[in-house]
Amino acid sequence: xxxxxxxxxxxxxxxxxxxxxxxxxxxxxxxxxxxxxxxxxxxxxxxxxxxxxxxxxxxxxxxxxxxxxxxxxxxxxxxxxxxxxxxxxxxxxxxxxxxxxxxxxxxxxxxxxxxxxxxxxxxxxxxxxxxxxxxxxxxxxxxxxxxxxxxxxxxxxxxxxxxxxxxxxxxxxxxxxxxxxxxxxxxxxx
Length: 190
Prior knowledge:
A hairpin with a 5-residue loop joins strand 6 and strand 7. The protein has one domain. It has one helix and nine strands. By secondary structure, it is of the alpha+beta class.
């Protein structure tokens, strides 16, 4: 008794059908992947802008509310680390140990890896010399220089200098998604 011989493999017709179907499906898959990568980049950018619009106001509001000095001309007391001064705020605090600490907070712009960033640096005077305590990037992809506007209790605009009785401070920041303004009032001037 002889068994029928079976050839394993594909026929030419089957192979041509698979090649034709693959030729139709591959461009669709490639387009889907391309769209996914572009959407991911856009989503990451939007998330970063949203983060910036949450971090900058929360830090700025607390800084301005407790500031005893508001100044845009001098960064005395806190190194900028190669950045350009936007705003300097200072205040006196009492530590948990009961010692008085002079704290200086500077908001400055720096360029890192080709991108402009708005940073917040905090320095403390501990024993007669200022030391950098912390630094955080508050806004990415800053376009141009952020602008600072100061106002008196009456609402009249005034120069942002240490000698003025400043009641409110506005910080306008432009990033890749547009301009947003952060506003805060000083407690000491209220």
